[in-house]
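COURSE: Structural Biology Practicum
ASSIGNMENT: Worksheet 4, Part C
STUDENT ID: 0417
INSTRUCTIONS: Below are two proteins. For each, the amino acid sequence is given first, followed by its structure token string. Answer the questions at the end about the second protein only.

PROTEIN I
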Amino acid sequence: MEGFVIKEMSWEEAKKFGIDSWETWESGPDVTEGEFPEQESCYFLDGELHLTVGDKFYLVKPHMFVTFPKGLPCKWDIPRYVKKAYKNDYEL
């Protein structure tokens, strides 16, 4: 998946990129499938996300940075709760 990035990142490193000033979003349990309408980068602050991209599964937890390119089809399964800081059209 071109443009899809997922990596661990400490909070101190994240702050160097200004992530501490990004908008936040949170959700309780939910399952969603679809494509991203625009490119989004996010840093997970709390909770857990079961992410499926194509035939690959990813467990996304706090201190993980993810970039979703525009049009990327994926499935989000939030088992309990998740909170992320996010910004559109941002690349590291």
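PROTEIN II
(use this one for the questions)
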Amino acid sequence: MTGTYGTPRKRMRPLTWMLLAAGGVVVLVVAVAAVVLLWPPGPRPLFQLPVACGEKWRLSTYPSHGEYEVDMIPTKGSAWGRPVLASFDGTVTVAGINGSLGNRTPDNPDGKRGTGGGYWVKIDHGGRWETQYLHMLEPPMVEVGQRVKQGQQLGKVGSTGNSSAPHLHYEQRRALLKVETWFDGKPSGITTDEAEHIVNRTSRNCAADEEP
């Protein structure tokens, strides 16, 4: 078959079609990602401390810890095995191991450190809000895709991953970015990691029949 003036028509090779199709997919993915990143987040959920109702915990940070990142330990008693609770209703998006576990346990508190966050959970609360819970003692008690309620137990406080002692490393994120943690409608005050900062807070992560 010939084109205008008898010039043979050029047929696109299969590789060309494949490259064009791949390019179209990339453009679509980039466009969707841009929309997701630019979509405004919803209002801040009424997050509560991720620990048992009425317990008082020390929230802290220190130099090089990471801005807006909070380490939590109880002001009384041992941290080992304390329940880690969901700060607000949501859907579990991660439940597993971040990095390597190490072997620090209540029976071997000075064991070898792991890397990363150890056993951890991440929850999507809608409106582009997320929370993260790291260094848990044992495999999470929830699964990816599971709906959880505020106050539902996710796991236990431990020292897996890159952790020097039992504690809960906690973060709140808005539109994928870490932000200052708020609890019961009040900011924690932990923002920069340029200096040590400590604040004590009492958990109001309570059921209807509980009092803080």
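ANSWER KEY EXCERPT:
Q1: The mean pLDDT is 89.
Q2: The radius of gyration is 24 Å.
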